[in-house]
Structure formats: C-alpha cells, structure tokens
C-alpha cells in the first residue's frame, strides 16, 4: 500500500437546472490540472473525486 493525496472538488449544492455539459467539462478539466500539479509537486499518486449536483432538492 502506498500513499496518495485525495483531491475532491465540484459544486456540492448546485441546482440541477444550472448544470450543463460545458460546466461539467470545465470543472473536470480544472480537477485534472490540479491533480497534475499535485502529482508532480508532491511526488505521489492523486485520487480525484468530483462532486456534481450533490444535493438535489425535491418539490413536495
């Protein structure tokens, strides 16, 4: 077992109506770029986890 850095990002409480393919793609790209910087700077593996639309409200 080795060590790794856990990188989590995204909009945890974003309204589903505000999500789009471009929005998700841009956030995914930023996460990948951050992972590369951390990997080369910290010399360790990076576990990347994205949270998109973590909370979805329901109308009762």
UniProtKB/TrEMBL annotation:
Phosphoenolpyruvate binds at residue 51. Pfam families: DAHP_synth_2. Mn(2+) binds at residue 12. GO terms for cellular component: chloroplast. Transmembrane segments: none annotated. Keywords: Amino-acid biosynthesis, Aromatic amino acid biosynthesis, Cadmium, Chloroplast, Cobalt, Manganese, Plastid, Transferase, Transit peptide. It catalyses: D-erythrose 4-phosphate + phosphoenolpyruvate + H2O = 7-phospho-2-dehydro-3-deoxy-D-arabino-heptonate + phosphate. GO terms for molecular function: 3-deoxy-7-phosphoheptulonate synthase activity. GO terms for biological process: amino acid biosynthetic process; aromatic amino acid family biosynthetic process; chorismate biosynthetic process. It comes from the Eukaryota. Its EC number is 2.5.1.54. Pathway: Metabolic intermediate biosynthesis; chorismate biosynthesis; chorismate from D-erythrose 4-phosphate and phosphoenolpyruvate: step 1/7. Its cofactor is Mn(2+); Co(2+); Cd(2+). Binds 1 divalent cation per subunit. The enzyme is active with manganese, cobalt or cadmium ions. InterPro entries: Aldolase_TIM, DAHP_synth_2. SUPFAM superfamilies: Aldolase. It is found in: Plastid, Chloroplast. It is an enzyme of class 2 (transferase). Belongs to the class-II DAHP synthase family. This is Phospho-2-dehydro-3-deoxyheptonate aldolase. It comes from Rosa chinensis.
């Amino acid at each position: 077992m080795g060590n790794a850095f856990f990188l989590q990002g995204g909009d945890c409480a974003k309204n589903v109506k505000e999500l789009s393919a471009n929005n998700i793609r841009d956030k995914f790209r930023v996460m990948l770029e951050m992972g590369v910087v951390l990997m080369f700077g910290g010399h360790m593996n990076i576990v990347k986890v994205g949270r998109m639309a973590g909370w979805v409200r329901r109308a009762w």
